[in-house]
Structure formats: C-alpha cells, structure tokens
Write a structure and sequence with these properties.
2 domains, globular, alpha/beta, Rossmann fold, 15 helices
Length: about 425
C-alpha cells in the first residue's frame, strides 16, 4: 500500500527488532496486508526478495535456495507465496546462521502449515496497525510497561485531545499507507482493501467464495460485534437478518478461519487463570477486527453517525453505543502493541451471566495482571471502578495495577489507587 503519507513512522516494534536482531538469526513479521511490515523490514535489509512480485516469485519457485543468497540482512517479503522458504530459513538457522541474517514478512498463514514448525529457530513478531501513540496524536505520559511493574507509579499528564479526535482516528485507520487521506479518497481505499479480501485473498488461501455477498454480510455482522462476546451463532443470525434463509454453519465457519489466517479478525481471548480461583469464568473471545476503521467502513458509519449514536448495522446486542465499542477497539489496539513490547499478553474477563467484566487484562509471564476498563467518558465515578474493585478483592497482590482509560483531559490516581488515564496519554 503506497498511497497517503510516505514518511516512515517509527513503530513500537522497531525497538523489539533493535533488541532481537543482535541475538537471533531469523525473525518473521506477521500481520494484515498494508500494516507496514515491508516498510519496517526493508529499512533493515540489504537484500530483498519480494515474493508478491510475480517475476521474482517465479524465479524463487524454480530455485528456492536463491532466497538465502545476497548480502545480509536478507528479507524474504511475503514468504507465504513460496512456503518452502520457511523450511530453508529454518535449516539455515540450524546450521548456525549469524544473528540478524534473515527477516521474513507474511500477510497470511498458508493452509496446513503452522509457524510452530519454526519454534526455537524463527521468532514471530506480530505487527498491528498504528496505535494512537505511533500516529503522533499526543505524547504519552503513562507507560504500560511501568504499570506492569506493579509499583503503582505516579500517574500524571494533560491532553487537549477530545472525543471528536478519537472519532476521527477510529475512522482514519492505522494502516500507514492511508495516513493523510480523508473523505472520499479514504473511503475508496478502505472499500478496495475490503474488496480485495473478498475477491482475491480468500482464493489465494485456497477457499473459493461462492457467495461474496454472504461473506460481506458476515464481515459486517462481525464488525457490529466489535468489543462484544456475542456467540458466532448470533453473528451468523445477524448476518442473514432479512436476507432469507440462513446459510448452514458449515458455510460460514471458513469465513472466520480464513480471516484469522489473514490477520483481519483479531479476537481477544478470555482470561482463564491457573493461579487464582475465580468461579464461573466464561471463555468466549471478545471480537475485534485488526483496525477499527475496517469495522466502521463495513458498517458504513461516519463521524456524525457515531457521535449521534444512530442505530446502524446488524442487530448485535451490546452494552452502550457503537462508538463506545469502536473506542474500545482503538484502545485495545494500543494496549496490545504495548503489551507485546513488554512481553505480556492481552485477554479479557467475563463471568458467566456477565455479572463481572474487565475489558482488558494484560498478563505477565508470572500470571500477575494489569486490569484496564475502557470508558467513553471524561469523568470516572465509583460505579466505573466496581469491577476493578471486585477483581482486587479476588486476586489480591496478583493485581499489579488497575486503570480506567477515558476520553478525559487529565491522568491521575483516584483515592482508591485506581489510575485514570486518557487514551491519548497511554503509551508503551
């Protein structure tokens, strides 16, 4: 994707690459098309094999070993077009290739091939769209890594970012090539991106789409389910509402599988702790697309519709407004990128019946967690922290810190110790 602002925006993942390439022989950047993998990797590569170029791909298919040639670092871009490249690099690592020798990028997982086959040899780094911090919307004053230390550091900072800016950023997309576009040009690019998924990407992964309109309706329904734990049956029902007979489940199951392999569907898994005893935890994932702009475009909403809370899209039950759901999607994107840099994972918590819910739990390797609630509001009261207080009472010192992410203008700690942080001030 080469449209929009061509100036490179440094990513959080660049810091990971700076650290890891000094010790590891092979790294793979994986994520959806247009997320910036090639731009990030190319800045570090001396030799580049672009396998999405048919001419270069035909040479590589004829003699895959050529992909290992050239002055290092060697970048194999879109490696999935020549799946043999994975095993070639893996064997080169086994043969003691020096640190920083190989970089790979991939926009899809080929069917029948698991990247676990490279465990211990090729280290995977997930790339997601640009976060608020990476977009330069504001200079963050609160770091997620510091919150994960568990020392309850002081929380300060002010921002002039208002709700309208968050709405603009939801719609603007975090795909680097689309930054700087607006209006009809941006909508056309997003439409083209979605159209390619339906018309080309599915087929490239070996799945023929017999009914493109049904796939598009399912994607729209999934977008409407953003930041919810709606069942896949509910999503399927909503996708066919008013469209006649409901398709068989076997017809829609491949949609989810292929979209996950394309990194477009990016659900947040449920937190199921092993160290603590919290009864009646529910296990469904919380639904998210890779970029909230894709969800907004699928649903056909603009800034006015989001701010006016106009009823749009398939009938998916949710607490609150669509804007609240997409604001949570935007915050989730930033938290996931920051958590990955801190070697932590992101999950959510929901008890059976929904009596208690925590939007995001960032879990360290030792099982201790940072809990975050996302509120589409400027102010926070005791009702907004009740689930955080409940969690603190259940897991005690295993709760490293508790945060409410808002649309307000100031970061601070409440008297009960809960941090209140505007989304624009939360960074890695």
């Amino acid at each position: 994707m080469s449209v929009g602002n061509s100036r490179y925006l440094r990513r959080v993942v660049d810091d990971d690459l700076d650290e890891l390439t000094t010790s590891l022989s092979a790294l793979v950047l994986e994520g959806p098309k247009g997320v910036g993998k090639t731009a990030t990797a190319s800045r570090r590569a001396t030799t580049i094999h672009r396998l999405d170029d048919p001419a270069q791909r035909s040479v590589a298919v004829a003699d895959p070993t050529r992909l290992l040639d050239g002055p290092p670092p060697v970048l194999i871009d879109e490696w999935q077009y020549v799946p043999e490249s994975w095993d070639l690099v893996r064997r080169a690592v086994d043969d003691r290739a020096p640190p920083g020798r190989y970089l790979l990028t991939g926009s899809a997982l080929p069917g029948g091939l698991s990247t676990h086959s490279g465990a211990g040899r090729i280290v995977t780094i997930r790339m997601r769209p640009l976060t608020l911090a990476e977009r330069g919307v504001e200079t963050p004053t609160v770091g997620l890594r510091a919150l994960l230390e568990g020392s309850r550091p002081p929380v300060t900072g002010q921002t002039a970012v208002r709700l309208e800016t968050y709405v603009d950023e939801i719609l603007a997309s975090g795909l680097p090539g689309l930054r700087g576009l607006s209006g009809r040009a941006l909508r056309a690019q997003l439409d083209g991106y979605l159209e390619r998924i339906v018309e080309r990407d599915f087929e490239e992964l070996g799945h023929r789409v017999r009914n493109p309109a049904a796939l598009r309706r399912w994607m729209t329904s999934y977008a409407a389910a953003s930041s919810t734990t709606a069942s896949y049956e509910t999503i399927r029902d909503a996708a066919t509402s008013g469209q006649g007979e409901k398709p068989a489940k076997t017809a829609t199951l491949p949609y989810r599988d292929v979209l996950e392999r394309l990194w477009i569907v990016d659900p947040v898994p449920a937190w199921l702790p092993t160290r603590n005893r919290i009864s009646r935890l529910a296990a469904p994932p919380k639904h998210q697309l890779a970029d909230p702009a894709l969800a907004a475009r699928l649903l056909g909403v603009d800034a006015g519709a989001l701010l006016d809370a106009a009823p749009v899209g398939p009938p998916i039950p949710r607490d609150g407004t669509l804007l609240g759901a997409l604001f949570e999607s935007l915050v989730t994107l930033g938290v996931r990128v920051a958590a990955q840099a801190a070697e932590a994972s992101v999950k959510h918590l929901r008890t059976h019946g929904g009596d208690h819910e925590i939007d995001l739990l960032v879990e360290r390797a030792d099982g201790r967690v940072l809990a975050l609630e996302v509120k589409l509001a400027r102010n926070v009261d005791d009702k907004d922290v009740r689930h955080l207080s409940w969690l603190a009472g259940r897991i005690g010192s295993d709760l490293l810190d508790a945060v409410v992410v808002t649309t307000g203008d100031e970061a601070y700690r409440r008297r009960d110790g809960v941090a209140v942080v505007p989304a624009a001030l939360l960074g890695p």
